[in-house]
Amino acid sequence: MKKINVGLIGFGNVGTGAVKILSDRKHFLSDKIGLEINIKKICDKDISSKRNVSVGRSQFSKDPKEIINDPQIDIIVELIGGIHPAKEYIAEALKKGKNVVSANKALLAQEGRELFALAQDRGKSIYFEASVGAGIPIIKSLREGLVANKFYSIFGIVNGTSNFILSQMSNNNCTFNNALNEAKAKGFAEKDPTLDIEGIDSAHKLILLTYLCFGRFVSLEDIFIEGISQVSLADINYAKELGFEIKLLAIAKKQSDELEVRVHPTLIPKMHLLSSVSGIFNAFYVSSDLAGNLLFYGPGAGQLSAASAVISDLVDLTQGLKAGMFRPTLNIAVDKSIKKLRRINEIESRYYIRFMTVDKPGVLAKIAGVLAKFGISIASVTQKERRKAQVVPIVMIIHEAKEKDLRSALEIIGRLDIIKEKSVAIRIEEV
Amino acid sequence: MKKINVGLIGFGNVGTGAVKILSDRKHFLSDKIGLEINIKKICDKDISSKRNVSVGRSQFSKDPKEIINDPQIDIIVELIGGIHPAKEYIAEALKKGKNVVSANKALLAQEGRELFALAQDRGKSIYFEASVGAGIPIIKSLREGLVANKFYSIFGIVNGTSNFILSQMSNNNCTFNNALNEAKAKGFAEKDPTLDIEGIDSAHKLILLTYLCFGRFVSLEDIFIEGISQVSLADINYAKELGFEIKLLAIAKKQSDELEVRVHPTLIPKMHLLSSVSGIFNAFYVSSDLAGNLLFYGPGAGQLSAASAVISDLVDLTQGLKAGMFRPTLNIAVDKSIKKLRRINEIESRYYIRFMTVDKPGVLAKIAGVLAKFGISIASVTQKERRKAQVVPIVMIIHEAKEKDLRSALEIIGRLDIIKEKSVAIRIEEV
To answer: Is the ipTM of this complex over 0.90?
Structure first.
């Protein structure tokens, strides 16, 4: 049986999982795919730790060059994470005629434009299913299953940490800090959770999804990013009373000939499937012109789940290699109807707004007056509590308005002496 | 640019959609896939009807042999439906060295064992994404995206007609007959809706899903099938009060070394995503050992949605053909840990039960007494209404019990003089 040699750079959590599966399911897989995937060499800085998987001493190396320069190795799997030297390893491997599998979303989001171009130039492929949604086959589905489709939008719950925190707040009525601490205790959040809770990780994934759906490689700077650290339990509860859940969404959405790319807390109607995605799960809601509206849901992280995606990529590459194809990836189609990116100021949205005001007659009239000057109309309004001579919340849903008009109105309202705290505005998506 | 010639047999709704997309998106697709998909010949009994798609007169034929015997045609797409002569056309095409795309779930469910074996024997492939879940890439995901996984179970809402009817009953509090009539009026149900509402169509799809997940080709006779025509509005409403929705599920589930395959109305907890799948939508809830629990959701029917799947299959085949691969399909792995099929009598399940009894003291004691004799314990019980001297419903949830014990108990209870109508028992799946 033909053997495809694979070199693994990075023998951490996911790498160990992949090696273990390839070894435990050797015959299961070779029966399916008609060849053997052979992990010829494994490289890691740490080659001495116990990993509970049987690997021959001779397979190990401390020097990635031993893999990159090995002419018998057909595919390298990069699982070290970080930008450097992962980027250099991948570039070098492509230049040496190897195909690449990577789970490195930060790298591909930041340097993908260059790396994908290099791969194309060399007639090689970079596969990256594990980088978004772990074992959920979202990348394969967008690239192959929906190959004939044009896309209107993709809405993703793509960060398990943030979704866990928001779910805990909503389901258990706890504060952001308590939920974050629980996430840390359960291993769902890193010691420094900034990348996750401030939306950066979601934005990295959004870059890759936007590339797959619209053929555009946007930069991190192109994406409007707002994390969940400012989401209060009060707003989650008020939103719930109004029939919404608050989720951190990664959104890429075509509006006429413009594309919106943004990551922010979003009110989603409770009727919508996305609002039921709880805990560390991920979900992708895709609107396409032929296959309609689709949802893909599953665990967005985990050793075996990510390893499942890595092996799916390996199998795809081996099928191409088996047949002597050099570049099995389908090309990404550029949506030429998109003329430019729409900046956040230009988007139109419904909003949830909470004002903290003095409890006096005439307050609402003043606020509504300013909103009206900007052509903003109110869909509903509730004064939530009345505590004499204290600050009270006024919760409002407004009809479709331009972000910049709303921002201007909020700035003016913020200067009124009836306003006692910073107002909160959260976008609503009907999805 | 290399051209792959395709012959289409069956120029109805889906066929017209596929031809239209291939023509409208000719460059979009060839840019992606690196070759041209050329519909060389189209065969249909009716070649004169207007179809709103531009096809040259010379492409048409009334004789499928013209396609099957054309050595320049690499792939045939079978979209005529029905068993004969579709089966003969596909078999003939495989023998002539062609790969096949089919949307014909009834044919593949009934004759697939023979046809897939023939394809394997000839080193050719039958692709059938459109046959289950239309444009939802569930088959590709099971076959390729989850290639490294073993499966515990798949639960599918796979029949849009039945799901529409049950959703209407649940959301609009209408009877089965009213919902069915609405489905007919909207074009969601056929004049004779038997195949859909009696679970046959779901069973056909379950055969294909079981084959993909477990490598076993079961027969229609192996599947326990119960449709939705006996589901009453009362049961839907009582189930709802208890926190459940009733859905028609197609279930393939491994229990130790046995496999259960069944289609029946099922109570699903409202918390579960499957319970929120409404209207004509389909969903697949897949439990796998590496990638975890996944949901795939989308429209399960429709001209463009099915055509999207047909084109995805065509593209997969062309990628193999481009590379000179004769058989791009991955083999199906047989789950050797499954020793036999578990018949319905042997399954264990929680159940929802409704008894219609006289309204007298002691009724519950009698029923509970019989259940206890069979070791069946009651989780909750409610007497729903009290109308003096009338028949009243007693609604019960019972703990895990063996189907055959429950059936025996129900038979004995049915003979008690306190029972005034046939009792209803519906299985509960925690999923």
So the answer is: yes
Q: Quote the CA–CA distance of A289 and B305 in Å, as a whole number.
A: 9
pLDDT mean by block of 10 residues, chain A; 431 residues: 95 96 95 92 87 84 94 97 97 97 98 95 94 97 96 98 98 97 96 97 98 96 97 97 98 97 98 96 98 98 97 91 63 89 97 95 95 97 75 95 98 96 96 84
B293, β-bridge pairs: B287
**For residue A156, what are the contacts with CB-CB under 8 A and spacing of at least 6?**
A133, A202, A205, A206, A209, A249, A250, A251, A282, A283, A284, A285
| Residue B297 to residue A235: CA distance in whole angstroms | 30
- The pLDDT confidence band at residue B332, using thresholds 50, 70 and 90, is confident
Looking at CA atoms only, how far is residue B91 from chain A in angstroms? Answer: 23
Contact (Cβ atoms closer than 8 angstroms) between residue A299 and residue A305: yes
Specify whether A205 is catalytic: yes
Torsion of CA B355, B357, B363, B369, to 10 degrees: -30
Calculate the alpha carbon distances from B107 to A171, B89, B90, B203, B300 in Å.
Answer: 47, 12, 10, 12, 18
Task: Give residue A411's identity as a one-letter amino acid code.
Answer: E
Residue A105 CA, chain-centre distance (Å), reads: 9
Cα within 13 Å of Cα(A325), Cβ side: 24
Asked if pLDDT for residue B192 goes beyond 60, the answer is yes
Contact (CB<8Å) A33/B147: yes
Give the up-direction half-sphere exposure of residue A65: CA atoms within 13 A in the CB hemisphere: 1
The catalytically annotated residue of B20, B87, B205, B253 is B205
| Residue that is written with structure tokens 């795939």 in the block | B296
Cα–Cα distances in Å, from B183 out to B84, B160, B162, B248? Answer: 29, 10, 9, 16
Query: Can you tell me the distance from the alpha carbon of B115 to that of B20, in angstroms, rounded to the nearest whole number?
Result: 29
Contact B326, B320 (CB under 8 A): yes
| Residue B32 contacts A where some CB pair is shorter than 8 Å | yes
* Token pair 């795309």 in the structure block, residue: B101
**With an 8 Å Cβ cutoff, are A299 and B276 in contact?**
no
- Among chain B residues, the shortest Cα distance to A306 is held by B291
Looking up tokens 């073993």 gives B150
C-beta pairs of A49-54 under 8 Å, 24+ apart in sequence: A51/A11, A51/A16, A52/A16, A52/A20, A53/A16, A53/A19, A53/A20, A53/A23, A54/A23
* Number of residues in chain A: 431
* A311 touches B147 (CB < 8 A): yes
Distance, in Å, from the CA atom of B123 to the CA atom of B127, rounded to the nearest integer, reads 13
For chain A positions 238-297, those within 8 Å of chain B (CB to CB) are 271, 273, 276-277, 283, 288-297
B292:A311 CB<8 A? no
Domains with residue ranges and CATH for chain B: 3-135+303-322 (3.40.50.720), 141-299 (3.30.360.10), 347-428 (3.30.70.260)
pLDDT in tens, B49-103: 888 888 888 899 889 999 999 999 999 999 999 999 999 999 999 999 999 999 9
Count the neighbouring beta carbons within 10 Å of the beta carbon of residue B53.
16
A135 in reach of chain B (CB within 8 A): yes
**Pair type for strands A3-9 and A75-78:** parallel
The verdict on B325 touching A (C-beta cutoff 8 Å) is yes
- Cis check for the bond before A328: say yes or no (omega within 30 of 0): no
Query: Positive or negative CA dihedral for B376, B382, B384, B387?
Result: positive
